[in-house]
Amino acid sequence: LFLCIVFFALAEAAVPQKRDGDGCMIEGNYVNPGEYYNGKKPCMRLMCYGDENGGYGGSGCSRIVCPGEQKVIPGDPDKPYPGCCPNVECLE
């Protein structure tokens, strides 16, 4: 009986323990599973997957390709996505 209890205790300790909640920590902010967070660093729209690892992914700023000259207006690094994205104006 003692061996069974010790074995059970060791088996329980070997199982990865679930974190408090199923969400994600992104830039120090808790995000619920399936919800989005507009990040600054990196400048991306991120979605919390809600998996056991707190995984998340997302998309960044779009790229505009001009046929001729262009003017790039830098984004504001202090603003969350999409305010941190640069803007491109096609001049021709």
Characterise the protein shown here.
The chain starts with a helix and ends with a strand. The chain is built from one helix and seven strands, in the order H-E-E-E-E-E-E-E. The strands form three sheets. Strands 3-4-5 form a three-stranded antiparallel sheet, with no helix packed on it. The protein has a two-stranded antiparallel sheet with strand order 1-2. It has a two-stranded antiparallel sheet with strand order 6-7. The protein has about 90 residues and is an alpha+beta fold. It has one domain (about 20-90). Strand 1 and strand 2 (about 30) form a beta hairpin. The protein is elongated, with a radius of gyration of 22 Å. Keywords: Secreted. Pfam families: SVWC (PF15430). It is found in: Secreted. This is PXCC family protein.
Helix-strand layout with pairing:
Layout: H1 2-14, E1 24-26, E2 29-31, E3 36-38, E4 44-48, E5 56-60, E6 70-73, E7 87-90
Antiparallel strand pairs: 1-2, 3-4, 4-5, 6-7
Q: How are the strands of the largest sheet arranged?
A: 3-4-5
Approximately how much beta-strand content do the residues carry? 25-35%
- Helix/strand structural class: alpha+beta
* Gyration radius, in Å: 22 Å
Largest sheet: 3 strands, antiparallel
Helix content: 10-25%
Average pLDDT score: 81
> What would the principal axes of the Cα set say about the shape?
elongated
What distance separates the N and C termini? 83 Å
> Please, how many helices?
1
For the secondary structure, the number of strands is 7
Count of folded domains: 1
Which residues sit in consecutive blocks of at least 5 with pLDDT less than 50?
A: 1-19
Element-by-element helix/strand order: HEEEEEEE
Domain Single: 24-90
Protein name: PXCC family protein
Pfam family, one: SVWC
InterPro entries: SVWC_dom
